Amino acid sequence: KRSTIRDLLKVQNIMHTYLLWCSIGTTSTLNAWGWPPIVSTLCGSAFCLCWILINVSSRQLVINILSGCCDTFFRQIVVVGAHKLNQSKDPLLFAIAPHSNQFIDPMLIIKTFERPIGFLCAAKSMRYKGWSLADIVAYFARVLEAVPVERPQDLAKEGSGRIRIIQTASNIITVQGVDNTTNFSQEAKVGGQVLLASGPNKGAVARIKTIVGDSTIELANSFETQNGEPFLYEDDDDDDKKIHVKQSHETKYKLIPKLDHHDMYQAVYSRLANDGVVGIFPEGGSHDRATLLPFKAGIAIMALGACELYGENLRRRLRIVAVGLNYFSGHQFRSRVYVDYGIPMEIPKELVEAYTNGDRRGASQKLMDTILNAAKAVTVQAPDHKTQEVLYMLRRLYVAQDHKLTLDQKVAVTRGLARAFEGDQDLEQVRDLVNRVAHYNNKLKQYKIHDRRVAFGGADDSVVDQIDAIAILALRVCLLLFYAVALVPGILLASPLLLLAELISRQKAKAAVAGSRVKLTGKDVLGTWKILVGMVFIPILHMIYTSFVYYSYGYKYAVAYFFFFPFISAASILASESAIDIARSIGALYVLIFDRRVGIELRHTRRALKADVRRIAHELGWNDIITKSVSYGHLNEAHSEAFTRALSGADLSTKVYDSMSN
């Protein structure tokens, strides 16, 4: 604390203060000479802007802008584990996962971590494209001194002609040109890759071993398909034939060059040796899947390579930290996110020695396994989005009804349930429970009712008493009308921005899916493009509306609008959240008033599911797994035990669970 106070009391070296004097003098002089007030203000502001650019760090300015964007886009940002790392002066290597929100992911790390951090960024994203929204990302990445990484897929070029893949009985795989239309001798390079661009195997890649001629390439390995799916040949469905030679369907293809990443690795080594912080997304590109993609080996090579180059002194200080980004509908405006900084890991000395002595692949793989396990410990893993929804519902059913969890506690419990479910998902009682929970969840969606409204029901065993429901409905309709009157003007003013952001983000998502091997619907790019559109068009709209006020009502009102309307807009965003919550509850109340059977049925279903979830959690040992997950979430042992008791609503003894099951 004392050092912080001393830092605050240090006299800053402020340069070119005469520019501030010129700013005030220009505005006052032009006003005195009868110039239009808006012209004099703009001229004076130009000097002030020059002073800001000279005295304010571009990096800090960008960080403040990105931090403000995160605060505006997200309703709640919860951070765990960052404070201890901020106090450390040691070099850190961040393994950030999942990479599910494109450029928003590094923005959140910059906001939640105080030390300067340099990210590995696709070189494609750092190239200026000329009057494009993507140039904003390129500018920010350059100011933040990101390390450019040239990705092979970004340099892929379409090959001439069409090809087939041939696999012989001796498992030799070759690429054959169709009708002698290919030109492999000129277009392909040994060590590069072949990427299939169409057909059932679209996205599969394989490395080139030998270029036999213009129409033939011998491959060094079999094709790697998306998510490990089997490669499809034309004769795969013919079980009656003993096939000695297999061939694929005709397909378009792209050729990916072999790249040398020596300069990139050296830049990372240098930053770590100088006690810097480097952020890496080991999955590579962003995606919108519910589970982690396979990690690239680059992060292990960087860690071991730096230790090999700079010796034991760096190895003792360097720490690898898994950082989990857990979004709750992260592509939507005013959503929530939980950022979990894991426990720092030291690189084992024996792995560095093995790497130095030539066993680079083996040492890298062992370190990769450790990093992957650490990443799984700070994220919620599910095989697909439907299972993810079931896990969220299992968490609500598992937790005691009168205990409200914080966001970090929700993630810890869901993470524990995901691990427990992964080990027991093939058991019949677990499959039956999951099917019933999914059916209950679908019922809630059908009637547009949230589970918490079912949990807190009325005295007559329905969701709410009928008289109370009518009173609540009337009150909420009145509140909604009040919000509508108050918010409609702001919504109308913001409608051009909302429509434009939605249109552009959807188009970018569609283009991203078309050009990706791993994206499903492109949700990972929606949030990024909404923010980019807002960065550009919010100031433009504000200036347009200010000009309209100036020409309609005069200078005084224009100045007041320019400086104070942003605060009104911020208040409107907060008020709109309450209005949306009220609007969502009206439909449910209407259904429950006129169809009491629905409420009673849902209430009984939830009670039965809650009892079964607790019983199965006790019988299969899920409680211990959840307790360990909570303990990993930066809680001490005593706190974890008390927290788990609160989750179950009782002591975690066999007698209590037996009584609940009875």
TrEMBL record:
One GO process term, biological-process aspect: phospholipid biosynthetic process
Coiled-coil segments on the chain, per record: none
MF (Gene Ontology): glycerol-3-phosphate O-acyltransferase activity; glycerone-phosphate O-acyltransferase activity
Keywords: Membrane, Transmembrane, Transmembrane helix
TM stretches of this protein: 480-504, 525-545, 557-575
Keyword Cell membrane: no
Protein name (database record): Phospholipid/glycerol acyltransferase domain-containing protein
